[in-house]
Amino acid sequence: MIKANEPLAGLRVIEMTTGVLGPMCGVHLSDMGAEVIKVEPPEGDLTRYFRGVANPLPAGAAGPMFSAVNRGKRSVVLDAMSPLGQSALRQLLTTADVFLSNFRHEALERLGLDERTLRATNQRLVYAVASGFGAAGPDAGKSMVDGSGQARGGLTAVTGHAGEQTLAGPVIADSAGALLLALGVMTALVSRERYAVGQRVDTSALAGQLWLQSWELAHTSMTGYVPVAQGPHHPIFAGVYGLYRTADGRGLFIANVASPESWRAFCAFGEIPEACDDPRWDSNQKRASFDPTVPVDQVNELRPHITAAVARRTLAEWEAFLDAHADIIFQRVQDYGEVLRDPQVVANGYLADVEVFGAGSHRLVGNLVGLSETPGSVKGGPPSLGQDTDAALAEVGCSPEEVAAVQTEAANSLSRKSPKMHLKPTD
User: Fold this and answer.
1) What is the DSSP pairing of strand 12-16 with strand 351-356?
2) Where does the pLDDT of residue 427 fall: very low under 50, low under 70, confident under 90, or very high at 90 and above?
3) Sign of the CA dihedral 165, 157, 17, 4?
4) pTM value?
5) Which residues contact 225 (CB under 8 A, 6 or more apart)?
6) How much of the chain exceeds pLDDT 70, in percent?
7) What are the tens digits of pLDDT across the range 146-173?
8) Does 7 reside within a domain?
9) For residue 228, is it within any domain?
10) What Å distances lie between residue 18 and 26, 146, 205, CA to CA?
């Protein structure tokens, strides 16, 4: 339910997206109060059917990917390639404040959804599109999935071990692109209020990768050093900063051991007296590579000692010790199950219990941006396919007969597609 005091209340977003990059942007706009209408083809956004591994939910339940990035939206089904569907879509778009898509430019143009066409009937429209690799350049129309975004943007080169790079665990290229897209849409909406003009918003998954790695790319640009993957350590930070394994096999991140007192206590607790008074690491500047006269290789020779120290005690023992030394920045490595139970995550309201059709109530990532005076809110679960078609089209002036014709056309289109796609019209 949209709340009148939310910052984007009264704004309408027409979304034609798939995957994560576009829909994740739409979720933020919904949380902030916008009405987000997800226009889907007759078969629906195909992420509805993506189950992932180890998924015991019943057939027909919303997939986790779809649920995560499409909660709180309305679903309208029409065949945008047919005359009736195109006409209904145009009527929706004349009422829109934002058009949001991550379809390729060529596809949007074929559907008559290019910016010039839409702006002819809606000058104030914020036309927001995201792509894999950007709107210009030789690969502007190239297909992209999250892994290819990570690889192209340099993230893969510094993740894992040298000569054995790995993808990041989450779909970080799509997610970062979605953040930039949401930021661009919000900026364009503010600009529209100030200057009374709509405009185009362009970004990409590749741009998201550059944004995430701004400092690291600046380091290479300014120094000429091209970092490589350092396993459990950051490719540019030298010294202690990194991940270590405790005696009970848990992961522990340690940034640095700053003060002389904490360093002595750390060495004693971890039983590495040989490192404590070694002149190579007898100051924080030397241990953290802040001293430009100390070679990086000398700083990194400390790492095996830290590895041995951490391996001598359990995670619980290390947490008890480190909690007593405020100048040592550390954190346990948590798996997703622990993150969902983390009292800090819960206390900040970062999760929401959401009703997912076919699957019941589940705890999903919710509204992550706090506003003191006009806070946003989660608007509910993901929509079932086409659940809002009747109402949304009636709201923009379509007669009952026109709505019925649009739905019949979409059903016929699905019947033609479903044998090839192995989808049931009831899915």
Assistant:
1) unpaired
2) very low
3) positive
4) 0.93
5) 219
6) 97
7) 999 999 999 999 999 988 999 999 999 9
8) no
9) no
10) 11, 13, 14
- How far apart, in whole angstroms, are the C-alpha atoms of residue 209 and residue 211? 5
- Chain segment 195-238, per-residue pLDDT in tens: 999 999 999 999 999 999 999 999 999 999 999 999 999 999 99
Triad 118, 77, 124: Cα angle to 5°: 20
426 pLDDT higher than 60: no
Classify 365 as helix, strand or coil.
strand
367 near 376, Cβ under 8 Å?
yes
Query: Residue 346: how many CB atoms within 10 A of its CB?
Result: 12
Q: Alpha-carbon distance 78 to 201, whole Å?
A: 25
Asked if 36 contacts 25 with a C-beta cutoff of 8 angstroms, the reply is: no
List, for residues 96-138, the tens digit of each pLDDT value. Answer: 999 999 999 999 999 999 999 999 999 999 999 999 999 999 9
Question: Of 154, 35, 171, 4, which Cα lies nearest the Cα of 98?
Answer: 35
pLDDT at 289: 84
Question: 200 vs 80, 99, 209, 279, CA distance in Å?
Answer: 22, 10, 21, 58
Count of H helices and E strands in the chain? Answer: 19, 13
CA neighbor of 269 nearest in space, from 254, 249, 289:
254
Does 58 lie in the same domain as 202? yes
What is the rounded CA–CA span in Å between residue 52 and residue 421? 18
Q: Are 88 and 123 in the same domain?
A: yes
Q: What is the distance, to the nearest Å, from the Cα of residue 365 to the centroid of all Cα atoms in its chain? A: 11
- Please classify residue 380 by burial: count the beta carbons closer than 10 Å to its beta carbon, then call 0-12 exposed, 13-18 middle and 19+ buried: middle
Largest CA distance in the chain: 85
Domain boundary among 285, 306, 332: 332
Residue 39 lies in a domain: yes
* Nearest-10 Cα torsion for 204, 32, 192, 391: 100
Rounded Cα distance between 371 and 168, Å, is 31
